[in-house]
Fold each of these.
Amino acid sequence: MTEAPESRFYTDVDALQELGISAQDIKKLKDGGFATIKAVLTASRKQLTSLKGISEIKVEKIKDSASKLSGPSFKTGK
């Protein structure tokens, strides 16, 4: 049974660890209020880089990984 694309948006950010995002970075995302894949995908790069310890390079990797988890149906404004 495949998961509906909409439900993947609400997947916990812990799933990012499967794609190489560190547990420390995931904790920083959660502490910053980004608990779901949707929250990460809809956040601006500026919002994510404002989190202590999250660099622009990490933001690119996090957003890329979140996009892979969400499937092909989600498009960002940028």
Note: The radius of gyration is 12 Å.
Amino acid sequence: MSSEQPKSTGTAVRGAPDEAAPSGVDPRILEALRQYWGYETLRPHQREAIEAGLANRDSLVVMPTGGGKSLCYQIPPLIADRMDVVISPLISLMKDQVDGLRQSGYPAAAIHSSITPAEREELRDAIRDNRLRLLFVSPERLMTPAFLDFLGHQQVRAFSIDEAHCISQWGHDFRQEYRQLAVLRERFPEASIHAYTATATERVRKDIVEQLGLRNPKILVGTFDRPNLVYRIQPATDVHSQTLEIVKRHENEAAIVYCISRKDTEAMAGFLQENGVKAAAYHAGLEKSERSLVQESFANETLDVVAATVAFGMGIDRSDVRCVIHAAMPKTIENYQQETGRAGRDGLEAECVLLFTYGDVMKWKRLIKFSAENAPDPGPIIATQEELLNHMAGFCASAECRHLVLSRYFGQTYPKDNCGACDVCLDELDTMDGATEIAQKILSCVYRVGQSFGVSYVIEVLRGSQSQKVLERGHDQLSTHGLLREMHEKTLRNLIFQLIDQGLLVQTQDDRPVLKLCEASLAVLRGEREVALTDPGHVDVKSTGRSADEWAGVDRELFETLREVRRDLAAERDVPAFVVFNDATLREMARMRPTTRDSMAKIPGVGKKKLAELGPRFIEAIRSYCEECGLSSDVEVVVPPKRANPSPRPNAQRQRALEMFRQGASIEAVAQETGRAESTICRYLEDWLEAEPRESLEPWVDHATYSRVMDAARELHADRLAPIYEALNGEVPYSAIRLVLSHARVQGEISAGEPRG
């Protein structure tokens, strides 16, 4: 339990700070890393953050979830032989951290509403006796006068604030109670303050520094990219069935499904249960005992899937979550980054799927206005939140690499041309044949019904409905009545929202939103603008190849055996299973099959205490398995190096397209031969021309057109397709402009760093 106190005080990591270390790192830091966590090296920025803590210098550390933030505030008090205070917003996350630390022999505790008065007094004694190195506390409890007075007598040298973005009004999760933390500078002027967050734009970072009164802080911003996460965004057609299909890809693995409302979580969990999935709902409306049961069942691997509200789901945690599904769009990109960040925190590949419809945007706008209506000045709050919401909607509608767009949003450059880990770069999304014609039919129908009706009614007319309201208005006589009768209602709804996302159609923002045309709509209707629409019924999920690399040399049956051992030990110790060892450590055991203490000590993630207390059980299980199966043990496995820049595995259609390109076949001919849309073939061609550069783009783009596009690009200094398209009066299709700009980059005629459009 989190309030249980350590029996000894021998916790300081000894050794002179000026002893030589191969990496130039203070050897005491490396010794702590080996002793408590079983690792030999630090991750990027951890050294600088730890050194700031030891030097009593304020800091702001921004690292993605799973990037190792917690280690930055866990090591300094060990070396300095002191107690630091960590401020964390959620009891469940505090408990998980404390459980994990104590399993490694680290003296930590948390004070919160769930502990008894006797436990609280015992905890105070441990603090007075300097038996703790970390004390976790919520901002609400910390700011009580009595607790501040108590800490004032303990000579606290450092405060670490987790989820520090909550203090900023520009952040995605502003919390008023975090603003009160500004008093720490005044109450503890000699203590250093360290702010930690996984998601913070430059504006939010500046606000954090200002609000907390950080003095000459060391600011460390790690990469926001999570290369082990595979991002997919799919049109939401049948959310329950789509979610089930995704979950089935991760059978017997941990998954989190985020929903907007409590009702949605209940419905989702019920549907999954009916289809044989061990799932449960998790939201603020449940009794505390029910929430605790779900948390414990998920952490102990007796529950595979949790359907949680986005507002409450951060209390659910496991390092080996292999899949995060958003059954509805998150409110902000920061939320998306943080929620998908729950996946793959052990560093292994994990899948993140967002099921998107523009209806989610409208729902969030209503919720934003509702939540701000009691604020003294709701205008700025609503404006800020809607700005963040629009960025999120734009991300969903984008056809660019997901890793690139996320990195760019947080002000960072993404170094790869092809991430090999998102639906765009894996070429999983297919575009619809005849998309421009379909768009024209939809837009024409909006015009014919007087731009006075919403999405559902326009769909009724297009599908040839004979409903009373259609007949009474005489809309069954319109030329657009029944034009798309063969199209499913959900597919048509998705296509309409794609047009809205692309700015080709407008939906009003009032209580009864209606569809209206805009200038871009008219350009499509006049045939001056091409349209690309993703086929919501065609998603070809592909393997990245990374997952296979991670399993190289691993005996899967032994891995499952070790998971059972982990579950048993977790139950005996009353801790979450991932606190015993994470999946990455178990896979390494199943790869190297250690049967001696020396061999087990080489496994990353096996520290001294875990080796002594847990090692024998795993060693015995491995020895028995090897003897039973006739396998060698204590092997030195050479694993193939991970791909620096994985590329999508070519499919038959892509391969055939490349062969035809080499023969000079036209885009139209390749599309007809492969059965793929012309826009898809254009992407194939663009990728091929980058991989196998040619001096000329003919026969796909003639010299005169090439020159027109380049002249317009240079004159406009344009790095987007739309301005060039407009400058050329819509006479050159987007596909040709994209090809020209891509070719020019390869040839060095324009900067390779410019976006693709």
Note: The chain has 35 helices and 17 strands.
